Amino acid sequence: MNNPLASRLRPTELCDVAGQKHILEKGKPLYNMIESGNIPNLIFYGPSGVGKTTVASIIAKKTNRALRKLNGTNASTSDIKDIVAELDTFETQNGILLYLDEIQYFNKRQQQSLLEYIENGKITLIASTTENPYFYIYPAILSRSTVFEFKSLEWNDIVPVIERGFNFLSEENKVKLNIENEVYEKIAKGCGGDVRKALNSVENCFFASQTDDDTKNITSEIATELTQKSAVKYDREGDEHYDIISAYQKSMRGSDPDAALHYLARLLEAGDLPSACRRLIVCACEDVGLAYPQIIPIVKAAVDTALMVGLPEARIPLADAVILVATSPKSNTGEMAIDKAIADVRRGHYGSVPRQLQNRHYDGEDAAVKGQFYCYPHDYENHWVEQQYLPDIIKNEKYYEPAMNKNEQAAKAYWDKIKGRK
C-alpha cells in the first residue's frame, strides 16, 4: 500500500515548505542556522500539519546526520538507549539527529535521560510539540534548546500544495483531471491550516471522483462533502481550547458581538457546549455585573434552555445571550469589591463581629457594656439607620466603588440622598 500523499510529497528544500516565512525565509534565524549546518538543539512548537517534521527531515539531510525518529506517545526509555547504542558507529559517524515528536508525552525521567547526550553534542535533539513548551517540557531541556514557533497556515498558503497534490496524483495514475475552480479554495479553507489534512482531502477527492473516459471530474460539491468538518481545530485539553474560550470571553467583555459569535461558533462546532455555557454565565456576572444586574437571570435562562434542547438548537438561545452580553454596558465593580474583601480576609486583616450584629442575646460577666443595641433598619425612616457593621479594626475600609454607569450611579444617588451625603 502506498504511503499517504503527504509523505510522498514531503518537501526536501526549505523553499518548498508552505508558509512559516517568519522563520524560514532567507535571512531569518532558523534559515541561517540550517544553511550554516551548525544546528543547536531545537524545539518546534505549533499545531499539527504545519511543517515541523518536514523541516526536521530537511535539517537531517543538509547536515548529513543520521535521522532517528521517536514519538512521545509510544516511545520508551529503552528506545532512547537503542539510539544511544548507535553512537560512534560507522553509520552515525557525523552524529545523530533525534526527532522526538510529541515530546510533551515524555515524563520527566524520560526527558532527563536525554540530557547527557544533547549536552555533549553527540545527539542533536529536535523536539516538536503542539502544546506550550514552557508548560510541558522539562526546564533543563528547555535551557539547552532554542524554541521556534510554527504557525497555523493561511488558506492561500495551502493552495499551491493542493495544486501540486492533484498534479502528482494525475501523473502517478496516468489520468487527466478536470477540476472546478472552487475546489482548491474549498479544500484550503476546509483543512484548518493543516497541510497534511489538505493533502488527505486531495487524495480523497481524487479517488472518490468519477472518471469519464480518461478524465476525472473533481467538483466543488465533492470537495465540500469531504472537507466540511475538517476545519474545526480543537482539543479540549490543549492550548487551542484555552485560546478559544479566552477569546470568547474577551470578545464579549470587549463589546464585540461579531467576534464573540465567531468563537461561540467554534466552540459549538467542536461540540463543547459546557464551555460555551459556563463562560457565558461568568462573563454576564464578571463583566456586565451591576451595570445591568437583570442580565444574570436572563443569561441563566438562556443557558438552561440550551442545555435542555441540546445541539444544534442550543445555538439559538446562546447566540441571543452572547449578543446581549456583548452589547450591554460593562462594570466589574462587584468582582473588584469581593476580591478586595477576600484579600483582607486572607491576610488576617479582620476582627470580631460587632456586638450589635452577633447572634446572641446576653453578655458575659466580662462585658463592659451589656446589651446588643442592634438597630432594626425597617423601624426607621427610609428603612435605614446609621450603625457600624464592619469589625472595629477595619471599620473604615471601602471595598465597593460604583462605576460610572446608569444603574450604579442611580443606586449611588439614592443612597447618598438617604444617608445625607453631598
Please summarize what this structure is.
The chain contains 20 helices and eight strands.
Describe this structure in words.
- The longest helix has 19 residues, at 155-173.
- The chain is of the alpha/beta class and 422 residues long.
- The protein is flat, with a radius of gyration of 31 Å.
- It has helices at 5-8, 21-24, 29-36, 52-63, 77-85, 108-112, 115-119, 133-136, 139-143, 155-173, 182-190, 195-208, 220-227, 239-253, 257-269, 273-288, 295-309, 315-327, 333-346, 406-418; strands at 42-45, 66-71, 96-101, 123-129, 146-149, 176-179, 211-212, 215-218.
Shape: flat
**How far apart are the first and last residues' alpha carbons, in Å?**
85 Å
Number of helical segments with 4 or more residues = 20
Q: Stretches where pLDDT falls below 50 for ≥5 residues?
A: none
What pattern of helices and strands is seen along the backbone? HHHEHEHEHHEHHEHEHHEEHHHHHHHH
Structure classification:
alpha/beta
List the SSEs and their pairings.
Elements: H1 5-8, H2 21-24, H3 29-36, E1 42-45, H4 52-63, E2 66-71, H5 77-85, E3 96-101, H6 108-112, H7 115-119, E4 123-129, H8 133-136, H9 139-143, E5 146-149, H10 155-173, E6 176-179, H11 182-190, H12 195-208, E7 211-212, E8 215-218, H13 220-227, H14 239-253, H15 257-269, H16 273-288, H17 295-309, H18 315-327, H19 333-346, H20 406-418
Parallel strand pairs: 1-4, 1-5, 2-3, 3-4, 6-8
Antiparallel strand pairs: 7-8
Helix pairs in contact: 10-11, 10-12, 11-13, 12-13, 14-15, 14-16, 15-18, 16-17, 16-18, 17-18
